[in-house]
Amino acid sequence: MGIKRRHSLTYKQTLVTVMTVFVIGLAISFYQIAVDLKQERLRVDQMVNQVLHVLKSPAAQAAFNLDNSLAQQVVNGLFDYPPVLQVEIRDDVGGLLAMAHRSRVDSSMRWLADILVGNTKVYQLPLKWSERVTPVGVVTVSVDPYLVTLGFFDRARLVLLFSIVQILVLALLLSIIFYVTLTKPLMKTAASFDAINPADNTGARITMPPGHEGDEIGLLVDKGNRVFEEYRQHIWQQEEAEAELNRLRNLLSNVVDSMPSALICVDVDFRVIQWNRQAEQVTGIAATQAAGQNLTSVFPRLAQEMGHIRGAIHKGLSSHDQRLKFTEEDAVRLYDVTIYPLTTNGIDGAVIRVDDVTELVRIEEMMIQSEKMLSVGGLAAGMAHEINNPLAGILQNIQVMQNRIQGDLPGNIKAAEACGTTIESVAQYLAERKVYDMIERIREYGKRAAKIVDNMLSFSRKSSRQMEPHDMIGLMEQSLELATNDYSLEGGLDFRQIEIIRDYDKDLPPVCCEASQIQQVLFNLLKNGAQAMAEHRGSAGGSRFILRIRGDSRSVRLEIEDNGVGVPEDQVKRIFEPFFTTKPIGVGTGLGLSVSYFIIKENYGGDLFVEPVPSGGACFILQLPCG
Ligand SMILES: Nc1ncnc2c1ncn2[C@@H]1O[C@H](COP(=O)(O)OP(=O)(O)O)[C@@H](O)[C@H]1O
Ligand SMILES: [Mg+2]
């Protein structure tokens, strides 16, 4: 820490002292000189008067007698004295008896002498002679005061010179003294101040310059140490407070970040002041980027909520909007948006909570759907029960009817003859009127209805007795075999032309189930897939199934993926409903998936759903718990 010499205390103190001493010294010197000057003037007067007094008698005598030579002698006598410039003696009527004159000596100090002691000093002495009342003449002497006071000027110069030397010596001494006693210890103390870092906790203190314990420097050091101590204490308290503040801030931001909702705070100008992790995820914008930005520029989807945000800020109103639709990358997602005023001293902004409820809504809808299916399933089963008995009666009677119109049974031949006809003509008539065909068709329709009723009955058929552990790969392969050999597959498709890719996990756990039920489900799914692929291509060419079986200790997941027409988005929920079919009458009953769904859900507590295949087609997923 350097101080310019001009600003140093030594310099300032010395300068002030020396200036003071200089002024005082000069004043004293001038006073001395002035006193000296006054005395010098008096001395000149005295001296001239004394000389005039001595020469008074001879001069008076010369004037009285008008003796020119005596007068000249007196004049010469006076003129011997060098300061005398001019001497003249005149008689009482002004006649000049004698005179002498010389020029003034020139000198560099002459101007000063002229100011201080005057230019020329003239003395006049009237000359008296014995009893005469009036003077008999007059002596006039002009003196050059400069020459008289030459000694004075020498003395004055000496006095001034001495004063200056004295002051210079004093300045030097004072500089040294001030430096040693003041500047040096102060500089040391300052260096000691510099060496201390108030922020470190070593307890370092300013060193006391030796011998200054009781004086002002000591006081300064003591005060400095005390200030440092208080400052350290203060810093320590501040650090504690900051640590506590940071801890609370962390806690708060962790709490806010762990919330599953996007939480956003804006100030009264709609600028973002809080942006939690969920908000980062929903928008893909980091909190650091969002801070200070206008809400609509970082979360444009909230533009429709600006009215409510304004209401919260200006009127303190809260709002809760449910199931708002935001389109994101072609997918529609649903959000609940809650807005409430942010109040501290007054209203400082608004808090916006955005919850993604897409999944929740989906689950809700699924639950409603499965409830609906359960009730429809129950209804169908009830109806099937009621229809089952009359249908059995119809089928049985048809069977009997067919028996009774056959030509070769003795009972029939006898009954015809009894009626006066032959069984042949009856047969001929029935054939002619196509009654055989009609009866056969009634039987076929009846059997078909019986098959539907049987399917419908399985809605209420609970788990059966033969629950045993089964290997899922085995069941899948058996179902495949069944489908391959099922020539009743409608639509003329041939299972053997379908490429089958198998992707089975090894070491799959066995699943406790009734083999025929799972086979029925898998058969339904395979049959649907084959039909969807045939529909897609008009034939089974290029069709392929990917069959996957994955499993862990808790469940086994079977996937049947086809490359068929796929399930349109709006039908995904409906395909599991009983009697929902897109196939022509006679081809589809709309019961395959619903029966499968009920078997898996009701009998096994598993799950059956469909997922779209991006390249086209549908993937039916069957999940079965292992237990
Ligand atoms: N793999 C599939 N690909 C495309 N659509 C399918 C598939 N499986 C089922 N579906 C659709 O689901 C409907 C219902 O199927 P399902 O219950 O088996 O009845 P059905 O096969 O008698 O029509 C079908 O009509 C069809 O529209
Ligand atoms: Mg089907």
From TrEMBL:
Catalytic activity reported: ATP + protein L-histidine = ADP + protein N-phospho-L-histidine
Coiled coil feature spans: 231-258
Gene3D superfamilies: 1.10.287.130, Histidine kinase-like ATPase, C-terminal domain (3.30.565.10), PAS domain (3.30.450.20)
Source domain of life: Bacteria
SUPFAM superfamilies xref list: ATPase domain of HSP90 chaperone/DNA topoisomerase II/histidine kinase, Homodimeric domain of signal transducing histidine kinase, PYP-like sensor domain (PAS domain)
Keyword Transcription regulation carried by entry: no
Domain annotation PAS: ranges: 248-295
Segments crossing the lipid bilayer: 15-34, 158-182
Its EC number(s): 2.7.13.3
Keyword check for rRNA-binding: no
Name of one Pfam family that matches: PAS_4
Xref: PANTHER family: SENSOR HISTIDINE KINASE (PTHR43065), TWO-COMPONENT SENSOR PPRA (PTHR43065:SF42)
Name of the protein this chain belongs to: histidine kinase
Lineage: Bacteria, Pseudomonadati, Pseudomonadota, Gammaproteobacteria, Chromatiales
